[in-house]
Amino acid sequence: MKYQVEFKHTNKDFEDVWKIEHEYLEPSTIAGIEQTIEWDNKNSDIHIFVRDNKKNKIVGEITLLPLSKEQFNKFMINELEDTEINKDTLLQYKSEGAYYLLFSAIAIDIKYREDKLVLSYLLKGMNEKIQNLMKNGIRFLNMCAEGQTADGQKFIESFLNLKHKYTTKDGYKLYSFHDTQDLLKWIKKFPEYINTYDKKYKLKNF
Fold first, then answer.
1. What is the pLDDT of residue 25?
2. How far, in Å, are 53, 163, 173, 174, 176 from residue 157 at the CA level?
3. Do 51 and 97 meet the contact criterion of CB atoms below 8 Å apart?
4. CA–CA distance, 94 with 172 (Å, rounded to integer)
5. Residues 6+ apart with CB under 8 A from 125
6. Residue 117 belongs to what H/E stretch?
């Protein structure tokens, strides 16, 4: 198998991800390696990586951070950035708990951008993670994201189906669903979006 989705990570994996994010994003908006490792140590359900098995390196990542209602509201008016969340303020999932999701990051190694299979694996990994958390009694109330780049905004609007709610002074767009029902509808339809993507590019993976 050329690629595989991974939910457990090493320090070297986070170094790979840090390098990938610097290919696209402003350095001031990227969480440091030490910070992401601290996040992972406190909540191991937030990172979804794709590994190139032949080269034994991470080539794609998605980060999903759980937020409280207060954190979500602050994020949506640009009073909280994901890099400001530390090991003390990062939430841990608890059975039957209710959370807001922050789609914090998606990035693919620039050398793999044209390999549509990497994104397919990331999307499937994200869907698997959300479904497993919900099976364990976790409830999600809404999801938000920040679109810094044109590609990021396109992904958020198409695959995540989030709605533009706010534009920051730096020109970044903040997104969320209108309400919990919209989120639940998206969660139900998300596998269909992935299947449509796979069919479009004639992908066969796992």
1. 77
2. 31, 7, 11, 11, 10
3. no
4. 32
5. 5, 7, 48, 49, 50, 62
6. helix 116-135
Token pair 């869907």 is found at: 127
Over residues 33-85, the pLDDT tens digits come to 999 999 999 999 999 999 999 999 999 999 999 999 999 999 999 999 999 99
Q: Per the structure block, which two tokens stand in for 204?
A: 């066969």
CB-side exposure of 134: number of CA atoms within 13 Å?
15
What the chain holds in terms of domains, given with CATH numbers, is 3-200 (3.40.630.30)
At residue 162's C-alpha, the angle toward residues 161 and 165, to 5°, is 150
Q: Tell whether the model's pLDDT for residue 29 goes beyond 90.
A: no
Burial code of 113-128, b = ≥16 C-beta within 10 A, e = fewer? Answer: eebbbbbbbbbbbbbe
CA 50 – CA 42 distance, rounded (Å)? 21
Q: Nearest 5 degrees, angle CA 124-CA 130-CA 136?
A: 135
Structure tokens, 92: 């841990």
Tokens of 17: 């991800």
Residue with tokens 């950035």, as numbered in its chain: 81
Q: Which amino acid is at 162?
A: L
